[in-house]
Design goal:
Elements lengths: L17 H23 L10 E7 L6 H16 L4 E6 L10 H7 L4 E3 L11
């Protein structure tokens, strides 16, 4: 069985206004090209507050290790250029000296300075 031109169904072709649809496409694409990068940029001009960490030592105010910890905190605060600030607290200010590690674990303090001796001591 062969199909002739007389038997074929007529095909209706609708012409679109291609210039109109191209304009719509390019206007939407242009708007998206401008909007997407703007949405991704952070607000750079907004000044951020420094990160403040609360750190407690395990020593009293007159102890030599307390003085070294205060010197360390002073150097870190200077080197950070104001982006980081460590508030150093003397031993016993927030928690007892032997509870500082637990306080950091629970989020009461952000940091701790203490010594841990793992050697042996000869008492001769």
């Amino acid at each position: 069985m062969s199909i002739t031109a007389k038997d074929a169904a007529p095909v209706v072709v609708q012409e679109e206004n291609t210039s109109q649809s191209r304009r719509k496409f390019f206007s939407k694409a242009g708007a998206a090209a401008v909007a997407v990068p703007l949405a991704g940029f952070p607000m750079i001009s907004v000044a951020q507050a420094p990160v403040v960490l609360k750190m407690q030592g395990a020593w009293g105010a007159k102890d030599v290790f307390n003085e070294m910890a205060e010197d360390y905190v002073k150097k870190v605060n200077e080197m950070s250029g104001g982006k980081l600030k460590i508030d150093y607290l003397v031993g016993g200010s927030v928690v007892k000296p032997f509870e500082v590690t637990d306080a950091v674990s629970k989020g009461v303090l952000d940091g701790v300075t203490k010594l841990r001796f793992t050697g042996t001591v000869s008492l001769k």
